[in-house]
Amino acid sequence: MRRGYTLVEVLMALVILGLLAVPLGYVLTTTGEGSARARLQDQSLTLAQEAWSISRSTDPDSLRDTSWDRDISGARWRIVRDVFDSADRAAAGLAWIQRAATLQPPVEISACALRARGEEWDTVKCFRWLRPRMRILQ
Amino acid sequence: MKFRSGSAMPMVLFGMALAILIATVGWSRAWSRRTTSAHLSLAWQSRLLAESATACALQDAVARQKQAKSDSTATDTTRKVKTISVRDTTDAVCAFNGPSPGSMSWDPPAGTQLLSVLARGEVTESGRPLSTELRSTWGGAPPPDPFSPALSLWDRNAGTPQLRGKVRGTVRLRVDGPAPASFEAQPSGGISQFVPSSLGSDTAAAQARMAAAFRGEGAHLGGDRFSPAYPPPTRDSLVYTVGDVVFEGPLAGDPWTPEGSRTLFVEGRVEFRGRIKLNGWRIYAKGPVVVQDEAALRSADIFSMGGVQLADRASVSGQILSKGSFLLSGRASLVAPAFAAVWPGKGADTIPRIELRDRTSAQAYLVVLGGAAEISLGPGVDFRGVAVTGGILRVDGILHGIGIAGRVDCGQGGANCSAGTFDRPSLPADFAFPLGLPGNLGLRLVSWETAR
Q1: Of B3, B55, B445, the CB nearest to A130
Q2: Are B279 and B298 in contact, with CB atoms under 8 Å apart?
Q3: How would you write the pLDDT of chain A (138 residues) with one tens digit per residue?
Q4: Core-most of A99, B35, B61, B281, by most CB within 10 Å?
Q5: Is residue A35 in a domain?
Q6: Structural domain containing residue A42
Q7: CATH of the domain at A22
Q8: B63 contacts in A (CB within 8 Å)?
């Protein structure tokens, strides 16, 4: 009885390994990127929901452009909130604002979640919504 | 015979298979997580769009408010505050300033005393629309003081009322001199402070809308009878002149739930029977509107010139405006949020009334206009809310909430015809008051429902 592998067997194994290594490596890389992207999406959604919640509890006429920072799992995040009111819309020359003397359009809010990359900020996700201007009692 | 025990190929293949399995599982998990994350993000955007549409609908409705004239019966000038009174029109404008992440749409709010809003937000996911629907109802927030007593009475002629029923809470009495010891004096105001000032414009707008619909080209001569086998057309507005319209669901099994809401104009009688569920329908009828069996109408807006009846196990939520009468019998229920108002019909012998009989229940704000008006709650009735009548309030069951009446004398020898219980502490804090009340402090979200 002989123990060990023949040269042909070893060569065949190496060929098969080589053939599969490329797609496997690609799949594993993609998997990692996909997971990271999904994690970013989840975190940006959480931050956007926080921005929505804060904006909701603020009087619409007191809403201003602002930003605040958060640390999540060691990563630096920034939430940037932009508020567009009727004055902005009028300045933009939108036709329907001419009727807004009595209509009082809702306040438009945009919240973007940005992630720090070195000294720069990457925008991960932005959400937009409208808030009524009237007084709503909770 | 020579054989080897260390062939490499099976081991290599096994190793490869294992690696592929691990990679596939990892890829699959990452892929599904990516999909889930993307879906959550889009679902949130879609919900924000639906909320934005709700904002537009509300803003549009309230932008049409007009400041009511100050209450002429009020003597206390500090009480003169704005009234939100929404006119019944459907003009709407609203849009995003920046690039829209999807589309939003809303139906013009139904009702004017309780605003019922149906709003939608839609984004596209992998070429398919992802839509969120928000249905909300909004009421008013009146100042608490006028609504703090269990019972407010304006009966000048009856002297000190001899209340036979039990009262938990205070009784406020409008008297010329000082109030008796067991009663609070009514400081100012009349019944009008409990009646939405926009009722008159509501009824006028509804009648104008009916007249226009019956004259319109889309009017169908004669009535119709709808069932699961013969569903109503999908048009937004259905108009029937002269005839009656019947909706008949099955008597057993799953209820019939026609999709979408419609505005129904009927010159005759309207009837809902069997097991049927309708959401957000607006019904304008010259004849009576009857809801019976197990018919359920939610966020409905009913206007009738011939009276409204709920019978058997039928239930309705929303706004009901009726000429003549509004009757509940059997085990019918008026489900919160609900507002019902009745005004006098023609003829001296027509008494405007709201009557709850048998084992009916209601969570609502009820108003009956006219000095001869009557609200009657039978012995087995469970009522929670506010009952306002310019005439008699007859409580033989339990009124959890607030009673406001012009008279307590039934004219049959009794100083008081209410033998039931007035239980003020039971009124929920977030009870749906109508928007059009004098002194309304703002909008209050009464109910909120999400569907995807």
Answers
A1: B55
A2: yes
A3: 556 677 887 788 788 778 877 777 777 777 777 777 778 888 888 888 888 888 888 887 788 888 999 888 888 999 999 888 755 554 454 444 334 344 567 888 989 999 998 889 989 888 989 888 776 776
A4: B61
A5: yes
A6: 7-131
A7: 3.30.1300.30
A8: 102-104
In angstroms, the CA B306 to CA B319 distance is 16
B16 chain-A contacts, CB cut-off 8 A: 16-17, 20
Contact between B109 and B91 under an 8 Å Cβ cutoff? The reply is no
Nearest CA in chain A to B27: A31
Distance of alpha carbon B191 from the chain centroid: 23
What DSSP letter does each residue of B62-113 carry, written as one string? HHTB-PPPP-TT---GGG------B-S--------SS--SSEEEEPPPB-SS
C-beta atoms of B141 and A137 within 8 A: yes
Query: What pTM was estimated for this model as a whole?
Result: 0.78
The answer, yes or no, to whether ipTM is higher than 0.90 is no
Residue A30 C-beta-side C-alpha neighbours within 13 Å: 15
The answer to whether A134 contacts B37, with C-beta atoms less than 8 Å apart, is no
Q: How many domains does chain A contain in total? A: 1
Using CA atoms, how far apart are residues B219 and B7, in angstroms rounded to an integer? 88
The 10s digit of each residue's pLDDT in B272-309 is: 999 999 998 999 999 999 999 999 999 999 999 999 99
Who among B24, B40, B52 is closest to A130 (CB)?
A: B52
Is the residue at A137 inside a domain?
Answer: no
3-state secondary structure of A67: strand
Q: Is residue A138 part of a domain?
A: no
Q: Is residue A1 part of a domain?
A: no
How far does B5 lie from chain A, in Å, by closest CA?
Answer: 6
Q: Which residues of A touch B445 (CB under 8 A)?
A: 136, 138
Contact between chains at B44 and A99 (C-beta distance less than 8 A): no
